[in-house]
Specification:
heterodimer, A: alpha/beta, four-stranded antiparallel beta sheet, 37% helix, B: mainly alpha, 0% strand, globular
Chain lengths: 250, 222
């Protein structure tokens, strides 16, 4: 196993309020890691620190290190970091005024790729990789906003994948979706890990158990437990983890 | 930590199975004293009821997995209940087997008193293992597993005596069979105890693997 992304004593603040407290964790290459924990425990802030989005918040501050292949991302160009470490959000957010294919290549265009044939090829590959191409190939010019919720989320994942990221961060990507769409996204996540490292936040502990190789539990800004998913859900070491995953609190 | 309602119901089922199995043990002791065929019939009927109860518990466990998707201690409690209910069903089967063996050879009791002592020892292991399970007491469970060697040794002693004994071949066969059944029953006491340890601590104790024969077979170990 090779460590792809690693945090060392990572702390984060919103103004004077500390929301992450010295988190050290190593994410293995081509694995799916689920982050679970009650609302407000710092999960979203944590993954926003992993691709330098937290610093975009007013008062957002970070201390400690985030290493991508051993290199500190806080010493890199933030745009380059976000290209290598993509993000998918809770609510699907296709650009409403863009077509399906333009949505997929929007990030590529921004980064300077202009050749139409190349863009079409990239869009097709990305849509195929999320299993959406066959559903939309007859009308790639229609608005991304015309798709169903599940299709929109897969479109957003295709948009992230079009940038050829090495890591993809997902912040509750299925919380707004029906069971069938959720199932498709989960299947996609399992497929994606053959190519890239996936870190996903979920409030659904069953989902974490279904799709992840490793699971981490955050509570009050601290990393309480991190380990192989089977052991995490069968025999957690921390009583707090046990209470959380058995639904006693949170 | 307070136990979820569905787990309480599953535990009540295990408790009920144990009560029924205890009654079977009581019937077996009465049969050994009185040799009344109706006692054998009653025991056999209770054995069927125990197996039916096992199926109900398995159904409840499957339903719990579907409806509650338990994790951690709750998950271990459900999977352990499935195994323990199976173990108790096997114990009831062995109690029935003893009566069947005695009936088949038309003998109401064992020829050697140590077989009766072995039966008592084996049953105490079952009783204490279920008690450790229901009270979630891993120390008690460990004490049950420590007694397994006594039963194994008693079983080997019986075989040795059967081989050497002057009593008839029928008696030797009967005692050998009974000792074998009791030895297997006691193993389930160890399995139930191992489930208690797993349920409470999350640590697996590998007791279900087959035992290898002792290196010296000419003399029984004491």
């Amino acid at each position: 196993m090779t460590t792809k992304l690693e945090t060392k004593a990572l702390s984060a603040w919103f103004g004077r309020k500390q929301v992450l407290k010295g988190i050290s964790i190593a994410f293995e290459e081509r694995e799916v890691t689920a982050l679970v924990g009650p609302s407000g425990c710092g999960k979203s802030t944590f993954i926003r620190c992993l691709n330098r989005m937290h610093e975009l918040n007013p008062g957002g501050r970070v201390d400690g290190k985030v290493l991508l292949d051993g290199a500190d991302i806080y010493g890199m160009d933030p745009m380059e970091v976000r290209r290598k470490i993509g993000m998918v959000f809770q609510k699907p957010n296709p650009f409403p005024n863009m077509s399906i294919s333009d949505n997929v290549v929007a990030g590529i265009k921004l980064s300077g790729e202009k050749k139409k044939a190349d863009l079409e090829g990239i869009a097709e590959r990305a849509l195929k990789s999320v299993g959406l191409y066959e559903e939309v190939k007859d009308d790639l010019r229609r608005s991304g906003a015309s798709l169903s919720g599940g299709q929109q989320q897969r479109l957003c994942i295709a948009r992230a994948l079009a940038m050829e990221p090495e890591v993809i961060l997902m912040d509750e990507p299925t919380s707004a979706l029906d069971p069938a769409s959720t199932s498709k996204i989960e299947e996609l996540i399992r497929k994606l890990k053959s190519e890239i490292t996936v870190i996903i936040i979920t409030h659904n502990v069953s989902q974490a158990a279904r799709i992840s190789d490793k699971t981490a539990f955050l509570y009050l800004g601290e990393l309480i437990e991190y380990g192989n998913t089977k052991e995490f859900f069968e025999s957690p070491k921390s009583p707090i983890t046990e209470r959380y995953i058995t639904g006693r609190f949170g | 930590m307070e136990q979820a309602e569905y787990l309480k119901e599953i535990n009540d089922g295990i408790s009920d199975m144990y009560r029924m199995t205890s009654e079977m043990y009581g019937d077996l002791l009465s049969f050994l004293k009185e040799q009344k065929p109706e006692l054998a019939q009653a025991l056999c009927k209770k054995g069927r009821a125990v197996v039916a109860r096992e199926e109900e518990i398995i159904d409840s466990c499957v339903e719990a997995l579907i409806r509650h998707q338990p994790f951690a201690g709750d998950l271990r409690a459900v999977t352990s209940a499935m195994r323990v209910s199976y173990d108790l069903a096997r114990v009831s089967r062995y109690l029935t087997n003893i009566v069947q063996v005695l009936t088949d050879v038309d003998s109401g009791t064992a020829c050697f008193p140590e077989v009766m002592q072995l039966l008592e020892l084996g049953w105490e292991m079952i009783r204490d293992s279920v008690d450790s399970y229901l009270s979630r007491d891993p120390l008690k469970a460990e004490s049950v597993m420590a007694r397994d060697n006594l039963v194994d040794s008693g079983y080997r002693q019986t075989l040795f005596r059967c081989k050497e004994a002057n009593e008839g071949a029928g008696c030797a066969l009967l005692n050998g069979l009974m000792a074998r059944i009791i030895e297997r029953m006691a193993d389930h006491g160890c399995y139930i105890s191992a489930e208690t340890i797993y349920m409470v601590t999350g640590n697996r104790v590998g007791v279900r693997a087959p035992k290898c024969p002792p290196s010296k077979t000419s003399e029984p170990t004491q």
